[in-house]
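U., I forgot to send this yesterday:
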Amino acid sequence: MSTTQKVPFFDYSRLFLDNKEVLKAVLEDVGTRGAYIMQSDLVKFEKQLSEYTGTKFAIGVGNATDGLELSWMAIGLEKGDEVIISSHTMLATASAIITAGGIPVPVDIGDDGLIDVDAVQNAIGPRTVAISPTHLNGRTCDMDNLMQLANKSGLAVVEDAAQALGSKFRNKCAGSFGDAASFSFYPAKVLGSIGDGGGVVTNNRVIFEKVFQLHDHGRNTFGEVKSWGRNSRLDNFQAAILNSGFQNYESVVKRRRAIAGIYHSQLKEIDELNLPPAPDEDPDHFDIYQNYELQAINRDHLKLYLTENGVGTLIQWGGKAVHQWESLGFQIKLPKTEAFFRKCLMLPINMFITDEDVYYVCEQIISFYRN
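Result:
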């Protein structure tokens, strides 16, 4: 019989402890140069971000929510404009549209948990101006069909790629399909900073220039004030940390895919579980496994059992989809999304856990269902 292990869902202290010497060196370098705001480290990071995602332009911003808001403002979202989103997303996807003056229209998900293309098509109305697909858990949406629909209908596309840096659909990176995209560098992300951070990418120079002005008090790249703006700049210290993280990012993604592979191999025979796709299951998708989210029968009891046996888990976003927050004025039913949220559960997947930890988690899940 296995002895009880402790496998936290995510140990934030280890972000510092496991990288203490590297982070101290980065802090000393930035501090010695007095390079705190919009310095060479940020320029380098923005260049890395655009090159990595296969886009022409990148801008470091305060956080991914700001990135979405600034993208919508740059595109010219107007009061009353409707934007179709997946209801299976963080509230920020919707709130960014509200802040920019628009109206989010949540729709249902497909069998993969991502926005359903048919549901998007059925939701297009006279006030629809855009689509905002969310690439969740490190998996990219079916962007070929979404872009075909957007182009046919004359709709803009802003990708919520907060969880998808390096994720690909048909060998093209998340964030490189639409008019603009926003990434998150929140500490728990695959590429995380020590605090909030975000980035906007685009292939459109006009959008780039508008976002740049909006994120730095209306100033353009030459420092000339061209419009009203605000302050949402990725600080240079965080940019330097992210540059350091980029050096071994491919190995981090490889490790997360290996963990996902173990979960799949150990849990695939349990009929009570619906697992995410295995790393090489679908040639159209390259998943980075920001999260490992499955669906489980008797989910709440499973979660309690795992907690009692030292395993940390998470039910994302308070266990509700966007449209289920009735206090925000939504009065719709989305059956597939609601069914998903009755069963969804995230297992630990990060750089701090060992293979032994992963096998232990699987043993506990197998034990729960066998007993």
